[in-house]
């Protein structure tokens, strides 16, 4: 477990955005960690291309919304840079102007990671936090002497998850790299829009081993708890392999979901694992929905949810001790928050919640 402080920092960095289609609230809290390494970004009206003069947070309602959360580890360099630049990198892809948002997100994330690797080459990050194990000696980070590998100088272990959404019309596109999550409330039932990338997954394990790495204690090379991430360039040194084939890959898994805005879909919750390690997908959706039904504002719900997840003391297993970031994307669909309140007041249909997260 990463370094903790004697008492949690409960100051919350909370923001809200709104247009005719969405009301978005986001909040971050340092908690028990020695520093805050999360970052988030929101632009409700991205232009159709980088050449479009429209402001990314203008009042027009027919463009593309972008919301993203980045859970950093080993420092803030990667998470902060990604939060500031990923949306423009996605918009700069030819596929974005062509309307192929799946490819625009996939290539945009990979291009951003390559840009950061070139920009921060040799950057020596602070010691790793929870995503990296302090119990592992530094020499265990050494990779095999693979042909085509770059020499390991300053150990670039800093990295970040990435969970980014694009909403255009009645479609939501979710690009995920790591173990942050996005979960949709479909009339009160949780539907996961992303799948966690862990080293123990068969497909992830196969790539790790093929690239010369290994999995021990459920961690990449016994150290990193994620199998995909931005940054973590110590695991991306093999120049004979494509970016998608490295021990740790920055290739996002991009999904597309058709929204039922006029029928059942109410909101999306995006968060880092500081939330999802403590509560299940359905518990989070039910928590948010019940409070929306009671008339609470999304920003207050974000803050209450983090305090609900915060451990009252230094929990030995680390649950509730991580940095926390949560975003609630409310679907207004031209209506008001009061309309959403009425929709959330309706009883959930019979049946189990949809949850693809294992």
From TrEMBL:
UniProt xrefs under InterPro entries: PP2C, PP2C_BS, PPM-type-like_dom_sf, PPM-type_phosphatase-like_dom
Needed co-factor(s): Mn(2+); Mg(2+)
Keywords: Hydrolase, Manganese, Metal-binding, Protein phosphatase
Listed name of the protein: protein-serine/threonine phosphatase
SUPFAM superfamilies: PP2C-like
Top EC class, one word: hydrolase
Family: Belongs to the PP2C family.
GO-annotated molecular function: metal ion binding; protein serine/threonine phosphatase activity
EC numbers on record: 3.1.3.16
UniProt keyword Cell membrane present: no
SMART domains linked: PP2Cc
Domain PPM-type phosphatase: start-end pairs: 23-331
